[in-house]
Structure formats: C-alpha cells, structure tokens
Amino acid sequence: MKPWILGLTGGIGSGKSAVAQCFIDLGVHLVDADQAARWVVEPGRPALRQITEHFGEAILQADGQLDRAALRKLIFQDAEQRRWLEALLHPLINQEIIQYLAQATSPYAILVTPLLVETGQHALTQRVLVIDAPETLQIERTLMRDNTSLEQVQAILNAQATRQQRLQIADDVLVNDRDLIWLRSEVERLHTFYLTLNRGQP
C-alpha cells in the first residue's frame, strides 16, 4: 500500500527541524522541501541558469553555487522579484518532492515545508501537522540560529503565512514551547496515532 503523506509545517523558528528529526529517529521517511529547493538550483541545473540570466552574475558565489544570502536580500526587498522566482521554482521543487516521496517504504511519509500554505504543497498531503510557537520564541530561536538581524527575521515572518492561516489548515497542532524530552514524547504519541490511520484519516 502506498504511504499516505503528512505535511509538517510551521513558521520560522517554530522547531520544525527538531520535530522532523524525532520522526526520522522513529523510522519515518521524510522529505524536506528546503532541501528540494537546494537541489533544483545546483550548478548545472536549468533553474540556476535562468536565475543567473534574470538577476545577473552577482548572485553567484566564486565556485558557481547560488549565493542564497544575496538572492534573499534581493527578493525580500522586491515582492515582484520574489513572485518571479517563486513562479520558476515552485513547480520544479514540487516535482523533486513527489519523486522523493514516491521512494517511501514507511506506512506514512512526511513532507516538511515552511511554505505549505503559500505554495499549494498541501495538495500533496492527506493530513497536516502544524508546529506552533509563540512569536517571541520564534524570533529568539531564529536570531540565535541564523546570525541575522531582527529586521530580516521580521521580514521573513511577514512574508510567511500567518499563524491563523496555518492553524486553519491544521489537522494536528503541536505547540513547541518546552524542552526536547517533552517534544520527543509528544512526537511518539503522534506517531503511534498516525500508525492507526488510513490515508491520514481515523
């Protein structure tokens, strides 16, 4: 039987990676949309050529890799450029995701994506788990992790779906505001429940 797909999402700094790792430790096949986004812009792939033609050589590093920081700066300042880039990349990223999800052998597989709402990727899933956290905690975690400015974190938060939009599409919500031991036990509880589901439904 084909595994059903759980969409795992949450805003920046909500703790998606920590939750994802807990599921991986339990043997669940997992595809990360951010990684798929990296694969599609590797040197030699058509997307990188189109991005370079559009934005110029300045968005490349010396070794020919995409300079993500430079690109991020450009698109967060200009909504039109962001839309152009999204229109190019989203279909390609979705193809990669579908390919990797098809390789799953666990009873269900997980698609981790910060932009589940925004990219229409929730159409690939049968159920949605939202990782939620108070905004102050999201900002604090992101500043510690990314060595970035408060303005940039705020810009990313503003570009992402709101908590309300995410919670509207959630089947399950995990509020990640405690320690890792507690988080692991919550993920185990969800995992046990998910194993009882048929195509993501009770």
From TrEMBL:
Catalytic activity: 3'-dephospho-CoA + ATP = ADP + CoA + H(+)
Molecular function terms from GO: ATP binding; dephospho-CoA kinase activity
Origin superkingdom: Bacteria
Any GO BP annotation: coenzyme A biosynthetic process
Location of this chain's protein in the cell: Cytoplasm
Function recorded in the entry: Catalyzes the phosphorylation of the 3'-hydroxyl group of dephosphocoenzyme A to form coenzyme A.
Protein name (database record): Dephospho-CoA kinase
The species this protein was found in: Pseudomonas segetis
